[in-house]
Amino acid sequence: MATETQAGAPVAPAGAGPLLRLRGVAKRFGAVQALSDVDLDVRAGEVVALVGDNGAGKSTLIKTISGAGPADQGTFEFDGGTVRINSPADSARLGIAVVYQDLALCDNLDVVANLHLGREPRRGPVLDEIAMEREARSLLDSLAVRTLKSVRAEVGQLSGGQRQTVAIARAMLGEPKLVILDEPTAALGVAQTEQVLALVARLRERGMGVILISHNLADVFQVADRIEVLRLGRNGGRFAATGDQRQNVVAAITGADSDIAPATPAADTGGTT
Amino acid sequence: MSTTSPTPAPEVDPTASAVALDRDGDDASGVQALLRTAANAASLRAIVVLAIIWVIFTVANDRFLTAGNLTNLTLQVAATGTISVGVVLVLLLGEIDLSVGAVSGLAGAIMGVLSVQHGWNGWLAIAVALAAGAGIGLLQGSIVTWLGIPSFVITLAGLLTWQGFQLKTLGDAGSLNVTDPVITNLANTFLAEWLAWTVALVAIGLMAAGALVARQRRSAAGLELEPMLLTGVRLGAIAIAIVVAVYVVNQDRGVPVSVIILIGLVVIFDALITRTRYGRHVLAAGGNEEATRRAGIATRRVKTVVFVLASTMAAAGGVLAASRALAVNQSSGSGDVLLLAIAGPVIAGVSLFGGRGSVWAALLGALVIGSISNGMDLLGLESSVKFIITGGVLAAAVVLDALARKQRMSQGRS
User: Fold this and answer.
1) Most buried of the four, A113, A163, B248, B317, by CB within 10 Å?
2) Global pTM?
3) Phi–psi pair at B190, nearest 5 degrees
4) Does the residue B228 lie in any domain?
5) Which residue intervals define the domain ABC transporter in the entry (chain A) (predicted)?
6) Rounded to a whole number, what is the distance in angstroms from the first to the last CA of chain A?
């Protein structure tokens, strides 16, 4: 049934254009069509959850946005202008930050060093440790991170939630407009998951667009504004993240077209047109 | 005895926001901070090991702790310590360079042949030897980073290759006596007493001033300060160590120039690693190379430069060794030079797993290894026993390193 669009967002409200607008994105790996004709909108100050089963194309879609795996086809608009994203450097320049699932932190360095890795400020030839430490503190304070004992703690000594916090905070240092979080709560305990979700909500308060990839629907419904389902490399539906949509989201992910009829391919694709 | 506790009090609400960071450190008294730092400092462990070794050898032989022997000890460690400076850099990357001994021998041979057989100016001969080291490092580092071949294998191949070049360079002569005073003075001159004291006092003054200025700046920026007691004890301990060392060697021949060279190199490379962006990237690449690459850092270039620096330091060590021996021959740089140059830093706390350690470990480790070897020589032990003991000490150090790593991993998340 073609309920997918009814619950979701209006396609493009006249006043505020989306921060990120993808149309007709396609990507092929050899014989495998990983993405075909995918659309996605993310507005500033909005958390969009990207869900779907394994192999649905979530990571591939993210890579087309981050530049790690550019798309074969499709138009990308960012902040009102058409853009091309062919490399991670392109997306970084636009103000797109990605927090990877495997964190990409250096365990042997402290929080300050990790936050600034690759863009350390200097005074003359030497590192400006004081500027780095101040910036780290004010950033973590502004994100209301209060679980860290010291910004000079080695990252290897931190808990999973703290590490995820550092990873997200690091993405924030470049003042991005769009933050992509790849499974930020995977492998975290209950309390730590709460911390990270609170942090995601704070990114939204700061007016950033957030794309959240998650397998955990409880997390998704807690923090997201909108849910975008990918199924077999296509848009599988668009839902408001309200509790009553839960069944519909599960149905869209699995392709079991919920209450009424068994899924037909026509119904699946019909939702996106 | 506690009575009813229906539900345990909830842990701190994880989502509650409070702007301040938990400033636990501020509550700790200076003494606590001092003890905590002492327990964690790898360099301090090395100093304790050094003290134990000195006590043992002093008890075993009353000539060990004399000014004359301690001066000999400093002379003995200069060359190995210099090679170790480069080894520390490679270890910080989590890589290894097995060619440093052979490179030091080849550099000595190149310098010797240019100086003795071709009559080159001493400085020029030294410069060419160092340049040869740099070139070797560039070659080996490029192969390791661009082709992704483990450094263990490439530098093992290098060990043999450069030894071959050393034999070829020396040719039929086999052994050369170096006579150019520019070269021989490096390891055979000593600072005049007044000069040694001046250097020592200036160094202490600079160190104290630097610490105070850094403290001032942190304070002005409103950042946490380490307890004054900790700063004071650390500065005081280093100052006392310098004064005692200068006093002792002044009872004999004085402070060797080669030791000043070694300490100067350690200071320079320590600043490079701890104070510069490049050094930070070396540590990062040693900790998590993939993360470093994703942070936009050209890790291959960072790593290649480390190999260049390491081979150059190995060459410098070879120059110092030739200067001290007044000769180069076919066995220069072979034997246990490589093993000792790597063992020293590891004993002094540089992790073989990369990312952890200090350049000062090159000096401390060379002192530990040098003391063991010097003491055993005084006792007249056979080579067999010396090998066994030195090997045992190295094995113990590596085991300690692995245990410390296991502990870290069990404390952290993974």
Assistant:
1) B317
2) 0.83
3) -130, 145
4) no
5) 20-255
6) 13
Contact A198 B25 (CB under 8 A): no
Give tens-digit pLDDT for A202-240.
889 888 999 999 888 888 889 999 999 998 888 988 888
Query: Which two three-digit tokens encode residue B153?
Result: 């294998």
CATH of the domain at B91: 1.10.3470
- Bridge-based pairing state of the strands A96-99 and A178-182: parallel
Angstrom CA distances, B304 to A217, B88, B269, stand at 46, 15, 16
Average pLDDT, chain A: 81
All domains of chain A, ordered by start, with CATH? 17-95+176-270 (3.40.50.300)
β-strand pairing of A81-83 with A73-78: antiparallel
**Minimal CA separation from A126 to chain B, in Å:** 5
Residue B56 lies in a domain: yes
Evaluate whether residue B5 is within a structural domain: no
Tokens of B328: 């180069």
B69: closest CA among B296, B291, B249? B249
Name the strand (E) or helix (H) holding B44: helix B42-60
Between CA B110 and CA B122 the distance in angstroms is: 12
Cross-chain CB nearest to A156 (options B222, B283, B408): B408
Which residue of B16, B21, B287 is in closest CB contact with A108?
Answer: B287
Determine contact: A124 vs chain B, CB below 8 A.
no
Is ipTM > 0.95 here? no
Cβ <8 Å between A108 and B355: yes
Angle between helices B299-325 and B277-287 (to 10 degrees): 100
Nearest CA in chain B to A139: B19
Number of domains in chain B: 1
Distance between CA B232 and CA B211 in Å, rounded? 10
Is B391 a domain residue? Answer: yes
